[in-house]
Amino acid sequence: MSYLVNAQSQPYMLLANNAAHTRNIDSNNKVALYVQNPASPGQKGARVTMVGEISKITDERELKECKEFYADRFPDQAEPLEDERFGKFFSMYKMSVKDIYYVAGFGVMTTWVTPEDFIKAQGDPLASFSPELIATWNKKKLQDFQTLAVAFFGAGLGLDEVDSPRVTFLDRFGFNFRFRFPRKGSSPSPDGKIAYDIREYRIGFRQQAMSKEEAQSAMFKILQEAWEKTQGYDDDWGENVLPYMILKRATDLWAPALPSAWRGTAIGSARLGA
């Protein structure tokens, strides 16, 4: 479902009066709003669950502003907002957030976020185009990411090759980098599948990237450093070298081999539970 966030960091949304969740709200206004980026669906993607109370917007001025912003952001849903019978079939609701639970990905960090910290949070400048960048990089930079994985993590893991290296998340501070490799000492299953170990690391940019161009430049520099390391040039870096820019190891997992045609099931922008 579609939603927006107002200046008070309250999610608001358009609901049909005859929908099951709307009828549930009338009897119990405690709800949970589950949000996930459609570009990173399923267990592998970061997601957040907001818990709180929801109420119908009845103030005429507030309702007018919400409808205008909503129609501007979601023009395909503008028609019912402009219909004179709007109140008969639809209503605008806003949610007062009480608790927030954040999951960074499959087997990765989880944490509770206070409503106060949520209100103070600022949107990341790369958020609007990061899915596009991630998709492009993962499609076109497979060999570069192979070099990155081996250069920075190969020695520690005893690897000279990895499988499926890719970026899973991007913001102005850096990116999450994941790859897998056959589990040492394991044998293929009767159906021929191989057990894999999975590693995901957080790699930080040397400087914050505040635009698409700066993010592309920061990634280029990291890939250049990875290549230089494989060529032995890191011996000339002297005291200026950083420890591979690793901020933390995010996860330590294993997974069975998946068919090459496997893809995760897409999840919408948000789901409301009432």
Return residue spans where pLDDT drops below 50 for at least 5 consecutive residues. Answer: 241-269
Shape: elongated
Mean pLDDT: 81
- The strand count comes to 11
Percent of residues in beta strands: 25-35%
Backbone CA Rg: 23 Å
Q: What is the CATH C-level name of the largest domain?
A: Alpha Beta
Relative helix content? 25-40%
Q: Major sheet, described briefly?
A: 7 strands, antiparallel
CATH architecture of the largest domain: Alpha-Beta Barrel
- What's the tally of helices? 8
What distinguishing features does this structure have?
2 domains; alpha+beta; 274 residues; 31% strand; Pnp Oxidase, Chain A; 11 strands; 7-stranded antiparallel β-sheet; 8 helices; Split barrel-like
Q: What is the structure about, briefly put?
A:
By secondary structure, the protein is an alpha+beta fold.
Please explain how this structure is put together.
It contains eight helices and eleven strands. It folds into two domains: 4-121, Roll (Pnp Oxidase, Chain A); 130-256, PNP-oxidase-like (Split barrel-like). It is of the alpha+beta class. β1 (4-5) and β2 form a beta hairpin.
Layout of helices and strands, plus pairs?
Layout: E1 4-5, E2 11-16, H1 20-27, E3 30-36, E4 47-56, H2 60-73, H3 78-82, H4 86-89, E5 90-103, E6 110-113, H5 115-120, H6 130-140, H7 142-157, E7 163-171, E8 174-182, E9 195-204, H8 212-230, E10 246-256, E11 270-273
Antiparallel strand pairs: 1-2, 2-5, 3-4, 3-11, 4-5, 5-6, 7-8, 8-9, 9-10
